[in-house]
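Dear colleague,

Following up on yesterday's call, I've attached the two folding results inline so they're easy to grep. Please treat them as preliminary; we haven't cross-checked anything against experimental data yet. The first protein's sequence and structure tokens come first.
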Amino acid sequence: MAHLVLFFVLVFGGQVIGGLSTQKLPPPDYGSMITILTVDSGGIKGIIPAKVLDHLDKALKAKNPNADIAHYFDVIGGTSTGGLMTAMLATPSPQNPNRAAFSPAQIVDFYKQNGPNIFKASGVFPGPLFDGEPLHNITRELLRDTRLSQTLTNVVIPAVDLKTQKPVIFSNYKLKNVPYFNALMSDICISTSALPVALPVYYFENDGVEFNMIDGGLAAGDPTQAAVSEVLQHYEYPKILVLSLGTGITKFVDIYDAQIASNWTDSDWLSKENAELVPYASAAITEYNLASLFSDFQPNSSYLRIQNTT
């Protein structure tokens, strides 16, 4: 992990560090290079990319101790647990609105301290595996009254509206044409985290529009393609530098053997392991599409994917 982070710091630092500003970014644009950070869905395994970002943050702070991760990226995208991490990195600090409210090290501590409570079984069947209330309360406490328009840099957070059965991409780029997307960051994060089976559907209203939301991992377990798409819609032929962080792929040994699966009960099909399959499949398709995009249509761009098997 450390050598990959070092490699990225060397490439990344050479591209953008000279243009760094610690002022609020509207977004920043380092010449023709657009920098993107994305974090996958994955629940408690969000601690994995949080540790990667902690390594990156320390390396970058050695160059500029007054800069945060949000100051280096034009766009930060995240789905589910990655969406919460995105919000924590991009939410301004109450003490200094030009700085991030949370460092990667603090996000690592957040997972350690709150994970057991958030992912405590509800004990109610049929129903979601987890209550949802701890996550909702903690998210609102962390992000307070921050809205999408107030983030330190552009964010892209996918979710899915259960009522319309369509993806909803919460993005600063969309606010001019879709002003009702300027929701509370807490509502956006709870929405993108509402994985069916695991957590309850999340309903909220903003600017007179109702949202009936479930986990963004159903559409974009890896949000990189969504983030790149937002950039390509607003810049003409940009150079793009992407750091994409996975939350680890679980080894499923013999679980999906056809003979075994044919004897599964309803509770087997609704297991946590099966709930994880959809985001994994989504992420695999994203990687396939991005490989084509960066090799054929963005030859001057750079894409680094960090993913581990857990």
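Below is the second protein, in the same order (sequence, then structure):
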Amino acid sequence: MRYYIIAGEASGDLHGSNLIKGLLHTDPEAEIRFWGGDKMIAAAGSHGTLVRHYKEASIMGFWEVLKNLRRIGRQMRFCREDIAAWHPDVLILIDYPGFNLRMARFVHTHRWPDPDKRPRVFYYIAPKVWAWKEKRVVKLREYVDKLFIIFPFEIEYFRRHGIEAFYGGNPLMDSVSQRPAVTPETAAAFRRENHLDERPIIALVAGSRTSEIQYNLPNMVAVSRFFPDYQFVVTGVSWLDRSLYDRYLGGSDVRFVCDKTYETIALSAAALVTSGTATLETALLNIPEVVCFRGSGISIWIAKKLVKLRFISLVNLIMDREVVRELIQEMFTPAIAADELRAVLPGGSKHERMLQDYRDLRTAMGEAGASERVAAEMVRILTEKQPQ
């Protein structure tokens, strides 16, 4: 079968890669065409064709989206034309709702040569409509043939809105379980390869977009000056120019490691993390963290008007209580962040409690294998739909 997959950011690339592995396990003859990144390229191998890398499409923030509407429009037109020309058996959408919901609508409204052979639309990792833009539920009901969710609390939420979603677990459990355990030998090798000294590491996970780096890294670097006995390491990404990081690292003792976010976090005593999937990844790796987030004033103002959640980090949302401290906008100052970091480091007042909360989190998340279970269900549905 022919699978067209769209992932528009780094986390989507990660989950898309594991989904592709599951699809190829269940359907070894699969043909895959996709928007994604390096992980999806590696997973698809000779079965896949990259249409566009997510680094060309990823835009974050209300104001940033408004400034790039023309560019986004061009990308959408290209994507619609590419889907129509290739005519897959199924369109699989991974998160990225502003773009992907429009592609779902296109598939349902396009005049296909044979209406009975319209591509199915599967949505994997549902838009967070329980947080904001709940009206998107209507679009999910109308334009998505099957919804695949990754949080257990979403089952009942979508059922109340007339959608029977499939829950196979959370794919981050797959990603974490596949990582090799840290040993003294691997830790020493990592330090040598990245020119790090013997001090304990604190990871600075400032995000994967230019705007996230610009707004968050300066204060993260400032926090390092409170902890001379620790070694602060920025987890950089190769699709952003190194000069962007150097602009804020100059004059500091903060080190830079590129494209090794998991490895850096796993070897750390604690981490400062911007909001997003990385907050959950850090918790699943059992590393104490403080969530720190700044954005443009306009984007934060709009978010406060529209978002109806008590928390911004996935850890706290899943547990429905404050497990990790969230320092947002004006609360994210170097001094406040330093105080919170001291509390979660070994020997700190919040350290043991956070590790216990992490154990509860892993229990709530369930077992690994989500990607393979979801892929098997997708192929089962598609097989049933095939004409006899």
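For the second protein, one point worth flagging: The CA atoms of residues 211 and 338 lie 23 Å apart.

Best wishes,
A.L.
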